């Protein structure tokens, strides 16, 4: 595999961009090779600037549930670009987007568009604090909600991969109001509420955590969380940035049958363009400016291009509910194939999978929280990642990320991936 052009491009990028990338996880720091520079994508495939083809399981870290360059998404973007790219004034397509989200997710009665998942969760916290008149936020260890100050505490994703759980530059005065709790641990949650309950504005959770690999919350845990937040008058913020419109058209909250106060979205609702959103109960959302006093704004929020890609993606998902069964089937086939391979080769692995989110850990321990996730052998993962790449399979370049199956993955891609997985795991023996 020739990666010369990518390596040179990385050297050049490093001269002008910190670490050569515009988001740390792209730098491949947890694996042994330089990042690939991508020139284009189509369907389930991406192509690097050296001309190599890969089956892509990153999908831009989740948004591309329909694959790269879906013809209807591309057409919607072209049509909108002809009319203008940004007005800083209301457009009808923003209402269409808001209606699609509110119709799909019953707990969301009003929604505000922003530009990223980070903005969505950051704004949701401000709203929760204003609404309750309280300051403390509870987050779970290993959950990642973007890089805002209050939430960059014991976070997953790149913050975990790069070994920087708490970033310098985050004021102590701000994070003193963030309490971290153990995921899937009801007793820990109860203890925290016993001590701080009356001052807790909100608990924020990834219902299926996708930033320490893939770790679903248990149904009992989710139920306990909803009950205790209600009991103490704290809000429940569901971070569905990754799970929203992926695990179901109605969100992970529909699978858990839980009714959160605020939900955060991003990724899929932007169809591959920069978007985020936060929404929830009308009585809460009415506090957002200019209706209420909680200030939050954005020059490019509700951007027409982003709305065009997002609305088209959501419409396709709504009109074709069979997509969810199809990605579930492909994902299950991958899981079964990987398990068969590991047992044939006698390698200890754990696979956590919910719908089209999947993670293979190199550990014999069941993975149900942060502590068990980090038992995985990351040196093995790095070797596995490189071997898969040589087989033409592009995975998330870290043990602590999900892979994403899209509707563009073909049966042939899945079979190729299972064979590649066998060959790659064999190199670990
Ligand atoms: C669950 C979750 N919340 C929030 C974010 C932050 O979103 P963004 O990267 O768009 O700021 C991410 C991913 O980045 C995420 O996976
Ligand atoms: N799980 C990680 C992400 O979803 C975010 C990607 C990024 O930070 O670039």
From TrEMBL:
<dbReference type="GO" id="GO:0008483">
    <property type="term" value="F:transaminase activity"/>
</dbReference>
<dbReference type="InterPro" id="IPR015422">
    <property type="entry name" value="PyrdxlP-dep_Trfase_small"/>
</dbReference>
<feature type="modified residue" description="N6-(pyridoxal phosphate)lysine">
    <location>
        <position position="267"/>
    </location>
</feature>
<comment type="pathway">
    <text>Porphyrin-containing compound metabolism; protoporphyrin-IX biosynthesis; 5-aminolevulinate from L-glutamyl-tRNA(Glu): step 2/2.</text>
</comment>
<dbReference type="InterPro" id="IPR015424">
    <property type="entry name" value="PyrdxlP-dep_Trfase"/>
</dbReference>
<dbReference type="GO" id="GO:0030170">
    <property type="term" value="F:pyridoxal phosphate binding"/>
</dbReference>
<dbReference type="Pfam" id="PF00202">
    <property type="entry name" value="Aminotran_3"/>
</dbReference>
<dbReference type="InterPro" id="IPR015421">
    <property type="entry name" value="PyrdxlP-dep_Trfase_major"/>
</dbReference>
<dbReference type="GO" id="GO:0042286">
    <property type="term" value="F:glutamate-1-semialdehyde 2,1-aminomutase activity"/>
</dbReference>
<dbReference type="InterPro" id="IPR004639">
    <property type="entry name" value="4pyrrol_synth_GluAld_NH2Trfase"/>
</dbReference>
<dbReference type="GO" id="GO:0006782">
    <property type="term" value="P:protoporphyrinogen IX biosynthetic process"/>
</dbReference>
<keyword id="KW-0663">Pyridoxal phosphate</keyword>
<dbReference type="GO" id="GO:0005737">
    <property type="term" value="C:cytoplasm"/>
</dbReference>
<comment type="subunit">
    <text>Homodimer.</text>
</comment>
<keyword id="KW-0413">Isomerase</keyword>
<keyword id="KW-0963">Cytoplasm</keyword>
<dbReference type="InterPro" id="IPR005814">
    <property type="entry name" value="Aminotrans_3"/>
</dbReference>
<dbReference type="InterPro" id="IPR049704">
    <property type="entry name" value="Aminotrans_3_PPA_site"/>
</dbReference>
<comment type="similarity">
    <text>Belongs to the class-III pyridoxal-phosphate-dependent aminotransferase family. HemL subfamily.</text>
</comment>
<protein>
    <recommendedName>
        <fullName>Glutamate-1-semialdehyde 2,1-aminomutase</fullName>
        <ecNumber>5.4.3.8</ecNumber>
    </recommendedName>
</protein>
<keyword id="KW-0627">Porphyrin biosynthesis</keyword>
